[in-house]
Amino acid sequence: MMKRQTAGAVLSVAFAAALGAASAGAQQNFDDVAVQTLQVRDDIYMLVGAGGNITVQTGGDGVLMVDTQYAPLSDRILAAIGELSDEPIRYIVNTHHHGDHTGGNANLRLAGATVAGGNMLGAITDSGVGAQIVAHENVLFRLSSATGDQAVSSDGWPTTTFFGDKKQLFFNGEGIEVIHLPAAHTDGDSIVFFRRSDVISAGDVFNTTIYPVIDMQAGGTVQGIIGALDKIVDLIVPVYGQDGGTLVIPGHGRLSNLGDVLNFREMVIVIRDRVQHMIDEGMSLEQVKAAQPSRDYDPRYGASGGFWTTEDFIEAVYRSLSEQE
């Protein structure tokens, strides 16, 4: 099987225009979206299209993928995976519930086949059972409780959930840890650590393109974002200084290493501390926004338009810190 790899090692993608359930993707035009593939390690790949980055692990046991982007891209995603492996999709891990990461769950799950008992016990029949979707139980709660335009088909809900600190899998000869990060981007965030490959799929607790989205309605907090970044830093072992070693696939943006995560974490901590000081001084939200506590980081991460602006981020930090007092 020919394995396709893009020429550039740096890939970036803008955030999708919505964070809600899978149906939000139907409002966008995906006609010109191409799914690009970057080989990260021997059997680990990063797929970039629209929405969150996808991580794919291949091997003799089958395919494991992290997140699924939007439903209209499922055929293109399956075609990209088909260039990497002839094996079926066995596992889908969701890093959280937002539609730009889970919109393709139903399509990709039903295109796969479940592993019986964790082992390859005979041939998989066309039973329609599909791949297993693994996530923290809060992802199931969020997806299953969505209503109206944001309602999600039960085919796209997690089939295997966990409620503790982590869930462990052994697949394609590799130990895989799905680690829950409480009250970070949402209340259901997980990172996925491929231990042998030394790759972390970070979901939306880390990105390289925009200020972190703190979904307070879904249990997100700025302190939880910092805690999640601390956990990622603890797992990373660099080759020299801050370069090489453990690689990190962000929720959005380019392939990263320790230096990128440290810079992002420092930014969040500095802005958190500035806003906290302003709160301690009795400043209102509007006064804090006017003071521009993120101004030196705005050229890198700021946005004046779109679904998540600099002011949205500052307001989320302010309200998150205020609610803890």
Explain what the structure shows.
By secondary structure, the chain is α/β, with parallel strands linked by helices. It has a single domain, classed as Ribonuclease Z/Hydroxyacylglutathione hydrolase-like (Metallo-beta-lactamase, Chain A, 4-Layer Sandwich). Helix content is 28%, strand content 18%. It has 9 helices and 12 strands. The strands form 2 sheets. The chain has a 7-stranded mixed beta sheet with strand order 1-2-3-4-5-6-7. α5 (222-235) packs antiparallel against α6 (258-280) and α6 (258-280) crosses α9. The model is unreliable at 1-24 and 117-128 (pLDDT under 50).
Radius of gyration: 19 Å
Average pLDDT rating: 89
- The share of residues in helices is 25-40%
Biggest β-sheet, characterized? Answer: 7 strands, mixed
> Structural class of the helix and strand makeup?
alpha/beta
Number of E-state strands: 12
Domain count: the total is 1
Key structural traits:
single chain, disordered N terminus, 325 residues, Metallo-beta-lactamase, Chain A
Element layout with pairings:
Elements: E1 36-41, E2 44-48, E3 54-57, E4 63-66, H1 74-82, E5 89-93, H2 99-102, H3 105-110, E6 132-136, H4 137-145, E7 160-162, E8 166-171, E9 174-180, E10 190-194, E11 199-203, H5 222-235, E12 247-250, H6 258-280, H7 285-291, H8 298-301, H9 310-323
Parallel strand pairs: 4-5, 5-6, 6-7, 11-12
Antiparallel strand pairs: 1-2, 2-3, 3-4, 8-9, 9-10, 10-11
